Amino acid sequence: MKINKNYLNLKPSYLFKNIAERTEKYKKENPDADIIRMGIGDVTLPLCKSAVKEMIAASEEMSDINSFHGYPESFGEDFLLDAIKYHYSKHIGVEVDTSEIIVTCGAKEDTANILDIFDTDNTVLIPDPVYPVYLDTNIMAGREVKFISANAENGFLPMPTEKDKADIIYICSPNNPTGEVYSKEQLKIWVDFALANNSVILYDAAYEMFISDIELPRSIFQVEGARKCAIEFCSFSKTAGFTGVRCGYTVIPKELEADGMKLLDMWKRRQSTKFNGVSYVVQRAAAAVFTDEGYSEICENINYYRTNTENMMQTFDSLGIKYYGGKHSPYIWLKCPSDMKSWDFFDFLLKECNIVGTPGAGFGENGEGYFRLSGFGNIERTKEALKRIEDKLKK
Amino acid sequence: MKINKNYLNLKPSYLFKNIAERTEKYKKENPDADIIRMGIGDVTLPLCKSAVKEMIAASEEMSDINSFHGYPESFGEDFLLDAIKYHYSKHIGVEVDTSEIIVTCGAKEDTANILDIFDTDNTVLIPDPVYPVYLDTNIMAGREVKFISANAENGFLPMPTEKDKADIIYICSPNNPTGEVYSKEQLKIWVDFALANNSVILYDAAYEMFISDIELPRSIFQVEGARKCAIEFCSFSKTAGFTGVRCGYTVIPKELEADGMKLLDMWKRRQSTKFNGVSYVVQRAAAAVFTDEGYSEICENINYYRTNTENMMQTFDSLGIKYYGGKHSPYIWLKCPSDMKSWDFFDFLLKECNIVGTPGAGFGENGEGYFRLSGFGNIERTKEALKRIEDKLKK
Predict the structure, then answer these.
(1) Predicted-complex ipTM score
(2) Which of A162, B156, B301, B344 is the most buried (most CB within 10 A)?
(3) Are residues B115 and B177 in the same domain?
């Protein structure tokens, strides 16, 4: 047999491996170093009480023949679809039909798998810097990829021009890695651009819970016209600390069509053929997150992480270090001081402050000279890290 | 944008929808009918105690900041990889390295997703009748599919001849839907055929736990040469009643190469790009299944289902109805009596016996005139169903 030769065009993904190796080497040479990790995008707070309670109750149900659950519904159990619809309506102000929601194991899986329903002949527009999955999944399928430059000039929120025409457009807002958020007016320009060019927008809203300004859109469906051109990807990972639980959902409006086919129907056909639904216990935990009690618990966690980004912003403000994100995102995207390159600043932080972060260069060419720090850590440890940075960088 | 036009070549999947509609209609017209469902391949016994205990313990860990688990390992946690290796070694007599095992949400997902790493230009050989996922996923990718006929003449265990040459070969043993199992000698012929033609065998072993004869292979890796041509797909769904829990695993030997690439590396690249690992609580439950205690509990459940197939075989023997499977499989694949067509026998069973089964015609052309009954039901209800069949069909 022959392999999918597009895989040969993938660049080895060295970013986190390289980070781990440099950190490991430093630790070996400095066994007493008290290293603070602010690199990875993983959460650290435990699951909220409501979710755990439901997870345990569901596990117990599975041990009793009268309450056992076999194959899940392919697109999500009704109780979870109802909970997600309620979340959209109550917290975001967007009405979606439960038939437009498809529950899965996570937004990473969905942003990758959705490509199955599109022709490999489509062109793709991806911002640079970017979450690497968008690029790699399209390389695997052999699609032509164009980049749109996110940079200091456009505040890392690029807007489309004639040359950016493409069939498939990725938008991630709040953005990973830059932490920046599009306004409704900016998204409207993207939506109009997509409608004018018969493009589909793949809208990654995995960080929507971090938006604290009611004027900023948490869903692309808050923008007029989006139901005719956009697919939205959401996740419980950052919303409710489900990185190790695995649950997400995708919303495809009924109106969204191409070549006379409803994309919702195509995605459902894809999912019922290649997927068998999400674990019952996981779905129960996920539904608990969007009850009023669960929601107030996850908001507490989000506020905890927000304290970290607020402290970070305060420190970088006082140091005169330029940064993006942070306000509506767990990530701070900072300009490396003294025009250092990303990996040089990585080494500097590791050696001088014993802090591990993520070099921006790992997210694309435009990330060079930038650095991502995460607010997902412990408040006291993050404060300690900021103190170290302050001590080293204060003029 | 343009859609993936291969989707237009998919036939609507009417089988289970059609079954549900006919059953619903009958129930409306006969509200007092006591219907026994022997159609679907879902399990009915609850999870074993060991699995539930671990699932609850893991859920509790997730509620404590000191024992919380974030992103899982992409290919499975060490404790689960070790448990699967132990299962292979102790119960099947096959040695696999933990680095060759990749844990996922299920065998359906894996048999579908594995196709990503192969060229769309490969030809595919699929037995008829067959589990519909093999066919549909290849149609979605636009691959050329050939069928090999499984029929009464070859005991529903077709063997390859020159004309069956193909790049990708599907084998499911014990088979869904026919319940038949290849012997080691037969599998050896398939392996040699694959090696001679540079084919890869996609070996679906989802029903391996139902094999009770130690001489029959539970893994293709019990056959010499298989490590150079086969990928094996396994599942906790039927093994341990995990249809609603969702966990499976795929084994790709290190030796397996094509175009100079290790397929194991390609699959790992695919998974780390498009998948984020299996829920921690699910992995804990899965690992418990392969402890000595858990294994004895799941064997009890398998024996329970086996009682059903034994009772079914006894009844069909006494009625002189020809059938396949049952011995090493939860499925009985029977020749419809009086040369009835599959759907006619469906209607007969529904109306005369109030039993719902699965028409063989739904699994491919060669399934016409055959019928699948499942042993996953309750023992008393299955006995009751067999009594009704006996009453109606006794000469």
Answers:
(1) 0.96
(2) B156
(3) yes
